[in-house]
Design goal:
The chain is of the alpha/beta class and 493 residues long. The chain contains 16 helices and 23 strands. It is globular and about 80 Å long. The protein starts with 7 loop residues before the first strand and ends in a 5-residue tail after the last helix. 47% of the residues are buried.
């Protein structure tokens, strides 16, 4: 077998010589290589799933034979396929089959969509859905079970808030899951209650686990056809890889596809911290798997979310002087979990949205770097609302900011309202983090946001919604260049 020689430098670009003819060559393209020394090229050649040449059109022809497919790009932009670095993919697959409450501008509009599904359901059949955002409603207050009881008295209804950190249920669901006035709040969670102590039908954070199944995926096994439809959707959006933030059921679903040669999306998978101990007992570590499905990291929650008003803040939410959010995992526990994972060669991804939670998480990572854990990849998921003093800590401790640009246009009005414009200045601080030397890895948090990386790039570059508002962008100092935004969905991810 012939080996591949070292790549040779030519005036046209880098050539990697291979004895294998190309399966596919793209010519006459405006190819963005993301190589700072040679950022543009005309042609790229592929063989056996690998890039074997990047450079000029003429040299690319040496990789051609009669079976090679040639695409004339006609001067159009050619990019690497995208990676979504934070997604709940089987949750997205399920959402394609569920009640979609995105875009509802009132409680009544949301209830109308539930009614449409109830009329198609059998008595006792559970109705699931999500995407509601009470802050977009004409009367922006959290919903309760009473409104659902009027439209669905005979069907359990489970509706996840847009951010995934609150769930709205009806009385039938509370009864089916045994949630009563006597049910205690779980650690890191809350059952909202009315003045008499009865559950209102709103479950926050770890209280969602009382429903079974966990965040982003139901207790039922996922239908394979739904997963395949979701993968096809990802391909149409330009995605070749994802970092999946789910647990055992999703990992099992991907393994099932992979074992039968049906997995055509590259999946880097995390495990929830509740699964860490058995994973360590089994000796699981980063890299277990192959190029299509690989175990990589443990996911830990430091706090909640801004929209559910459970993000852990240094100062209270506007208009709620007693509310600084929630601590989901305290610092001591977080350090113990992260240390155990890093020692076992698992990477550590920690969800932190509020500035207090981000500061605590950075301290955990700084401690571990000081203890000699230099090989582990440490990430803060969301890194949403920062204190400016913490910006340089990302680069110093080599911590990746795993962020979701599409949250910014969705959340900008909410951030101003809940934090005040002065504090909101460092919410989704893409440019400040980049300038401070942090690596940005971009994703969607789908199904919280839509699975559209091009729209994510638009949000990172313009800081506007799809209507072009605000005109100069929300906190325009934090806008990125197009190249930087693309990097977040490719090399950064």
């Amino acid at each position: 077998m012939k080996t591949v020689p070292e790549r040779l430098s030519t005036r046209a670009g880098y050539v990697r010589i291979s004895a294998m003819p190309a399966d596919l060559i793209v010519v006459k393209g405006n190819i963005l290589t993301q190589d700072t020394e040679r950022p543009r090229a005309q042609a790229v050649a592929f063989a056996a799933g690998k890039i074997v040449y990047v450079g000029d059109d003429a040299s690319a022809q040496s990789y051609r034979d009669r079976n090679t497919q040639v695409i004339d790009a006609r001067g159009r932009l050619v990019l690497s396929a995208f990676t979504d670095s934070h997604i709940h993919f089987t949750g997205f697959a399920e959402s394609l089959e569920q009640v979609d409450l995105n875009g509802c501008d009132s409680l009544e509009a949301a209830l109308a969509r539930v009614v449409a599904r109830v009329t198609q359901a059998q008595p006792g059949e559970t109705i699931s859905g999500g995407g509601w955002n009470h802050l977009d409603w004409a009367e922006p207050k959290f919903p309760d079970r009473n409104s659902l009881d009027t439209v669905a008295p005979n069907n359990p209804v489970i509706l996840t808030r847009k951010d995934g950190h609150s769930v709205w249920v009806n009385s039938a669901t509370l009864q089916a899951r045994g949630i009563t006035r006597d049910t205690p709040d779980p650690q890191g969670g809350r059952i909202d209650r009315d003045a008499t102590g009865e559950p209102t039908g709103l479950l926050r954070e770890n209280a969602i686990d009382l429903l079974g199944g966990g965040l982003g995926v139901s207790a039922n096994e996922l239908d394979e056809s739904a997963l395949l439809r979701a993968i096809a959707h990802a391909h149409r959006a330009g995605l070749a890889a994802i970092h999946n933030i789910e647990g055992a059921k999703s990992l099992r679903a991907f393994q099932s596809l992979h074992s039968r040669g049906k997995l055509k999306l590259r999946v880097v998978h995390s495990i929830p911290d509740a699964s860490l101990e058995p994973a360590l007992t089994l000796g699981l570590g980063r890299g277990l798997g192959d190029e299509w499905l690989r175990l990589q990291a443990v996911k830990i929650f430091a706090d909640g979310s801004l929209g559910s008003q459970t993000a852990e803040l240094r100062e209270p939410f506007e208009g709620a002087p007693e509310n600084r959010g929630m601590t989901i995992t305290d610092s001591e526990r977080m350090l113990s979990l992260a240390r155990g994972a890093a020692h076992a060669h698992l990477d550590v991804w920690i969800h932190a949205i509020g500035d207090a939670a981000i500061a605590r998480t950075l301290s955990v990572f700084e401690t571990l770097r000081g203890e000699g854990y230099t090989d582990a990849i440490f990430r803060i998921e969301h890194a949403q609302h920062l204190h400016p003093a913490d910006l340089p800590r990302f680069a110093r401790a080599d911590v990746i900011a795993s962020m979701q640009p599409l949250h910014q246009p969705s959340d900008m009005k909410m951030a101003d309202a809940l934090l005040g414009p002065e504090r909101a200045r460092y919410t989704y601080a893409f440019k400040s983090l980049q300038d401070a030397g942090a690596v940005l890895a971009f994703g969607s948090d789908c199904p919280v946001e839509r699975l559209e990386p091009l729209r994510g790039i638009h949000a990172a570059v313009t800081r506007q919604n799809v209507e072009g508002e605000p005109r100069e962008g929300w906190v325009p100092e934090e806008r990125l260049s197009v190249a930087a935004a693309v990097r977040g969905f490719t090399i950064g991810a």
